[in-house]
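User: My instructor asked us to take a sequence, write out its structure as tokens, and then describe one feature of it. I'm not sure where to start. Here is the sequence I was given:
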Amino acid sequence: MSDLVVIPSRSELDARAILERFVAENRLLKPLGSDQAYESNAWLYGHLSPRNKAKTGIKLHFTRLDFHGNKLSTGKKFQGTPFNEPFLSFAKAILNHLHTTRGLGSADSKLTALRYMEYALRAHNGNSEPWRITPH
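Assistant: Let's start with the prediction itself. The structure tokens for your sequence are:
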């Protein structure tokens, strides 16, 4: 007997194509408007201090929300598991887009929201493909 072949729906194909275009467009921009590697799983969000010209701010770690027993790990110390693709590219693109279009504001809380979104996708779908997000 042959393996079952799952054919994605048209709406899923459309959502995937839109997401891929969105990610590709945001990869052309500098991460959070600064000279840092887009491929890095930790981006500095902050500014240059006028006093000593040092970078100040926070590091945004693109890591999953994990539960170890009853303890919640958010990856703030980069001990967490990095997001899997394609969610990693989606998270970077959405934060970069928000920074470019209207200012990121509370970057850490937005990344925390993305961690919960990725966790819910993994729990519900078994993977973290952002195009599988539905309103129900």
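For the description part of your assignment, you could build on this observation: The radius of gyration is 17 Å. Try explaining in your own words what that tells you about the chain.
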